[in-house]
Specification:
Its EC number is 6.2.1.5. Pfam families: CoA_binding, Ligase_CoA. Residues 2-100 form the CoA-binding domain. With 300 residues, the chain is an alpha/beta fold. It folds into 2 domains: 8-120, Rossmann fold, CATH 3.40.50.720; 139-299, Rossmann fold. The protein is 34% helix and 22% strand. It contains 9 helices and 14 strands. The protein has a 7-stranded mixed β-sheet with strand order 3-4-2-1-5-6-7, with helices on both faces. The chain has a 7-stranded mixed β-sheet with strand order 9-8-11-10-12-13-14, sandwiched between helices. The relative contact order is 0.10. Mean pLDDT is 91; it is low at 242-261.
């Protein structure tokens, strides 16, 4: 992972639109080095003094090697955009687009594994390193620098938890919305490993939700391999048990939890974290209290 204020970033968009312009300017204003935009058929233009190219390879020929691509294209164009970026040597992709076809995502995940490309998303708000780097659509006012690593499937829950931490005087080392489509590029497990090795992160907050089994897998991985304290919060405790929410990746299965009863429910996830001796918050406002408790435990 190479995420620094010096990282060179391009934005891939289907067309130059007001929403894309707003996202690009939000990132640029935050300090992210947006060196080019790629929008097929609109090459030769400029977007607030940022050059626009038809192809990724044209952008690289003009501005040099690129570290990261942030992708905003139409769901059915994401695979082509991502493959184009990877073919040009870009090894970190942030896919903000929602609703990418699952089979396209399966293809992309396989290609990413073969090329050792880190993919965040789809259907995510991306990554923010407070006061250093914004890759996506995080509202920066909720964040401040600190030593709490924040991982979440949901975008809006990431903002809410970040706001709770910030109000309690707990800044963030990095916040990552990994995405809430059925299939996503990088998992809780990958990011837990990254943050466990990150010298700027002292404690990890993991925010999950009902559906799928990624939280149960994460709990098992934390118990086996993670040294830093982890605080978890699972949204949806009071949601109707029979209602499938939009972020519920119920098509996913896991050998780790294949024998669990009611895997994928909030109760199952909470039980898995408690078994792993992870502190579990009942509501977002309780997260800062548990983070401070976890930090005190570690210092003893």
């Amino acid at each position: 992972m190479n995420l620094t204020p010096d990282s060179k970033v391009i934005v891939q968009g289907t067309t130059i639109s007001p929403s894309l312009t707003q996202a690009v300017m939000q990132m640029k204003t935050y300090g992210t080095q947006i060196v080019a935009c790629v929008s097929p058929g609109q090459g030769g233009q400029e977007l607030n003094e940022i050059p626009v190219f038809d192809l990724v390879e044209q952008a690289i020929a003009s501005v040099g090697d690129i570290d990261i691509s942030v992708i905003f294209v139409h769901p059915y164009h994401v695979l082509d955009a991502a493959l184009e970026a990877m073919a040009a040597g870009i090894r970190q992709l942030i896919i903000v687009t929602e609703g990418m076809p699952p089979l396209d995502m399966v293809h992309l995940v396989r290609k990413a594994e073969a090329t050792e490309t880190l993919v965040v998303g789809p259907n995510c708000s991306g990554i923010i390193i407070p006061d250093q780097l914004l890759l996506g659509t995080h509202p920066s006012e909720f964040y401040k620098p600190g030593n709490v690593g924040l991982l979440s499937r949901s975008s809006t829950l990431t903002y809410e938890v970040a706001a709770e931490l910030t109000q309690a005087g707990l800044g963030q080392s990095v916040a990552v919305s990994i995405g809430s489509d059925f299939i996503v590029g990088s998992s809780f497990l990958q990011w837990l490993e990254i943050l466990d090795e990150d010298e700027n992160t002292e404690v990890i907050v993991l925010v999950g939700e009902m559906g799928g089994t990624s939280e149960e897998e994460a709990a098992s991985y934390i118990a086996e391999a993670i040294d830093k304290p982890v605080v978890a919060y699972i949204a949806g405790l009071h949601a109707p048990a029979t209602k499938l929410l939009g972020h519920a990746s119920l098509l996913m299965t896991s050998k780790v939890v294949s024998n669990m009863v009611d895997a994928g429910t909030v109760e199952s996830k909470i039980a898995a974290f408690k078994t792993a001796e992870v502190l579990v918050a009942e509501r977002p406002s309780e997260i800062p209290i548990l983070v401070k408790k976890a930090i005190k435990r570690r210092k003893k």
